[in-house]
Design a protein that fits this description.
The complex is a heterodimer of chains A (551) and B (171). Chain A folds into 4 domains: 104 residues, Sulfite Reductase Hemoprotein, domain 2 (Alpha-Beta Complex), CATH 3.90.480.20; 158 residues, Sulfite Reductase Hemoprotein, domain 1, CATH 3.30.413.10; 92 residues, Sulfite Reductase Hemoprotein, domain 2; 137 residues, Sulfite Reductase Hemoprotein, domain 1, CATH 3.30.413. Chain A contains 18 helices and 21 strands. In chain A, strands 16, 17, 18, 19, 20 and 21 form a 6-stranded mixed sheet that branches. Chain B has 6 helices and 8 strands. The model of chain B has no long low-confidence stretch (mean pLDDT 94). Classes of the chains: A alpha+beta (551), B alpha/beta (171).
């Protein structure tokens, strides 16, 4: 965990006081809605279909049990008793009142949580691998760099009014769990041939109306230069990014219009003039941030404890263990993914009671630490393997042990037309129906790894472009229709999915997905060929034929 | 529109000169960027103060040759959402070491004062009277800053190092 000191706490409290003043001025009419809008957005407050929505940042997806209890408290006190975990390591509350917001922020500030820059045209929450610090084989804990960037991007005096929002993600593992290739800046930590840590810097990724996979702008930027290099990119973007059309304002469009070579040249020119300035990180400063991350005192434990051997006879436990627990860098420990995708439930939701209960389990079994991933699930990052059976029973009691992590019912979905004022179509009911269709664990297991992503509009909050199966809600003559694509992926081999054919009606979506899955089961070369690999091998055509043959 | 400088509301010493208006015999004048580039020598001939209004999509490189003779540069926020002038301000102060008046104009509102000060502005053509009056209080909102900019405020990273070294020295 990273420990806030007095300096960090002071800033968060100052921000709360400022926002309290801004809300008062809005309520008294001194500020117009137009003037207030940007101020509330910079504090994570949207006006949605039914109420204000409040988005809270969970920097690089790390939460303490104390912080999770405070999120539960906010859900219970100011909202309707639940929260929604998003694809960018944020949590959203959907029913909050404007007059309560300063108090909710003040409560969160007590545990060092805030909502700064969770929306608006600024640098958003810096996200990272939810397994940071515990994944085997990672170059270094990427959160040290995420924290340096979090501080640097917070209330930045030059870049708080960019052409459009700006998202940064960092990974330090060969397998990318942070989806860095669909971010405005993606950073891959690796070593150069001298053994020094630095970053491959990617730029211009993003989904929405015009999706792009990020391109490499520089293969290696030394760690000490990362703030100045990011600053150079932002400076070029702030000056030359388009401001005439909201749909062309993201950095991906600038990179596309200039071309990556020309854009890289502009950044290099800018960087050369500032790289040796005040942003250069000396070792002492990096070491100071590193020293404020604390790690658990792990025990020396066997890889295969007696408790685990015994529990292996229980097929229900085994079904859960096989897809919810993952290798940890320390022998005798596992990373446990906690599914927020129950059959028939909205993906990513957790009630206040569930959050409190999970905080207790984290204290008991995971050194008080919880992680939040972009797949809208939670994780307990340091569970002793001997505790897995007891943890599983406890998770099951609170509805958090659905054995579907990485399976077809582990769906990523945006809130859609049930909440969102931008949406054209509902997302949650589609997800709910799909989880019922594939509720049979044997079937889901037979299908294997398959990611479905659902967005209720072209803004693509459900990342439909990079779903193995992507579903996009559109509106045609006042009716909800859905476009289905296949072959997308968000990992280190990121690809955009391809449309399989004309949009279908709400009632037909689950049937179409069933058809695609049936086609896959018939076409796969072997039981261990994943859906995504079959699509890559055969292309879209056989799936299109199967889906539209009878439609 | 009230003008704030040094935390106080002041009278504007500059008079705006339209592009087609004759150059007056004396008094400080503020001219457009186009006029500055066209007749710089005439403008700077007498010992009057000359300031320029520089739009946020115009390259600073064109302005750089005149920096040591300019008494004021007014940058523009067409709306408060358009943040290009923050970059121009920082470059003028930190890269080109411009030391004259740097004025924020356009939709200049209370909630951007701290950002503007940090970027190097020292004079503010404030849209609302109430915001101008609140200036001195507003800029005290924050005492912690994460980024090093030309305003010289110490960053959180370096304050931590100072505290640490100070504590180390006491032990």
């Amino acid at each position: 965990m990273y420990a806030y000191d007095e300096i960090d706490r002071t800033l968060v409290n100052e921000r709360v006081a400022e926002f309290r003043d801004q809300v008062e001025r809005r309520l008294s009419g001194e500020l117009t809605e137009d003037e207030f809008k940007m101020l509330r957005l910079q504090n994570g407050v949207y006006l949605q279909l039914h109420a204000y929505m409040f988005r809270v940042a969970i920097p690089y997806g790390t939460l303490s049990s104390r912080q999770l209890r405070k999120l539960a408290h906010v859900a219970r006190t100011y909202d309707r008793g639940y929260g929604h975990f998003t694809t960018r390591q944020n949590v959203q509350f959907n029913w909050i009142k404007l007059k309560d917001l300063p108090d909710a922020l003040a409560d969160l500030a007590e545990v060092g949580i805030h909502a700064m820059q969770t929306s608006g045209n600024n640098m958003r929450n810096v996200t990272s691998d939810q397994w940071a610090g515990v994944a085997p084989g990672e170059v270094e804990d990427p959160r040290i760099w995420s924290e340096l960037l979090r501080q640097h991007t917070t209330l930045h005096p030059e870049f708080s009014f960019l052409p459009r929002k700006f998202k940064i993600a960092i990974t330090a593992s060969a397998h990318d769990r942070a989806a860095i290739k669909i971010h405005d800046i993606g950073l891959r930590l690796h070593k150069n041939d001298k053994g020094e840590n630095g970053f491959e810097v990617l730029v211009g990724g993003g989904l929405g109306r015009t999706p792009f996979i990020a391109k490499t702008i520089k293969p290696f930027v030394h760690g000490r230069d990362i703030l100045s290099y990011v600053e150079a990119i932002l400076r070029v973007y702030n000056q030359y990014g388009r401001r005439d059309n909201i749909y062309k304002a993201r950095i991906k469009i600038l990179v596309h219009e200039l071309g990556i070579e020309k854009f890289a040249g502009e950044v290099e020119d800018e960087w050369r003039q500032m790289r040796d300035g005040a942003l250069n990180l000396d070792d002492e400063v990096i070491e100071d941030i590193r020293s404020r991350f604390s790690y658990p005192h792990y025990e020396k434990l066997p890889h295969m404890p007696e408790e685990l051997r015994k529990a292996a006879h229980d097929p229900a436990f085994e079904a859960w263990r096989k897809n919810s627990t993952f290798a940890h860098k320390i022998q005798g420990y596992s990373i446990v993914t906690v599914s927020l995708k129950p059959v028939g439930g909205p993906p990513g939701d957790a009630t206040a009671d569930q959050m409190d209960a999970l905080a207790d389990l984290a204290d008991r079994y995971s050194f008080g630490e919880i992680r939040v991933g972009h797949e809208q699930n939670l994780a307990l990052p340091h569970v002793a393997r001997r505790d897995l059976p007891a943890l599983w029973r406890a998770l099951d009691r609170i509805g958090f042990a659905t054995p579907n992590v990485n399976l077809i019912t582990d769906i990523i979905a945006c809130p859609g037309l049930d909440y969102c004022s931008l949406a054209n179509a509902r997302s949650i009911p589609i997800a709910q129906e799909l989880t019922r269709r594939f509720a049979n664990h044997e079937l889901a297991n037979l299908i294997g790894r398959l990611h479905i992503n659902i967005s209720g509009c072209i803004n693509a909050c459900g990342h439909h472009h990079v779903g193995h199966i992507g579903i996009l809600g559109v509106e045609k003559n006042d009716e909800e229709f859905y476009q289905v694509s296949i072959g997308g992926r968000a990992d280190e081999d990121a690809e955009l999915g391809q449309l399989i054919g004309p949009a279908v009606k709400f009632e037909e979506v689950a049937d179409v997905v069933e058809d695609i899955v049936e086609a896959y089961l018939a076409l796969r070369a072997a039981p261990d060929e994943l859906f995504i690999d079959t699509v890559e091998r055969l292309g879209v055509e056989p799936f299109r034929e199967r889906v539209y043959a009878t439609r | 529109m009230p003008l704030v400088r040094g935390g106080k509301i002041i009278d504007d010493p500059f008079v705006y000169l339209a592009d087609d208006a004759p150059i007056p015999a004396d008094g400080a004048i503020l001219v457009s960027g186009a006029r500055l580039l066209q007749e710089a020598e005439n403008l700077f001939a007498a010992s009057r103060k000359v300031g320029v209004i520089w739009s946020n999509n115009r390259e600073l490189a064109e302005l750089v040759p005149y920096l040591d003779r300019l008494a004021a540069i007014a940058l523009i926020f067409p709306t408060f959402r358009d943040g290009r002038a923050y970059t121009q301000a920082r470059l003028l102060r930190e890269r080109y070491h411009y030391r004259g008046e740097l004025r924020a104009t356009g939709q200049v509102l209370r909630d951007q004062f701290v950002f503007m000060l940090r970027a190097g502005f020292d004079t503010f053509a404030v849209r609302k009277e109430s915001d101008a009056e609140a200036f001195a209080d507003t800029i005290k909102r924050y005492s912690v800053f994460y980024q090093p900019t030309g305003d010289g405020r110490i960053t959180a990273l370096h304050r931590r190092m100072q505290l640490r070294n100070f504590e180390g020295a006491r032990q």
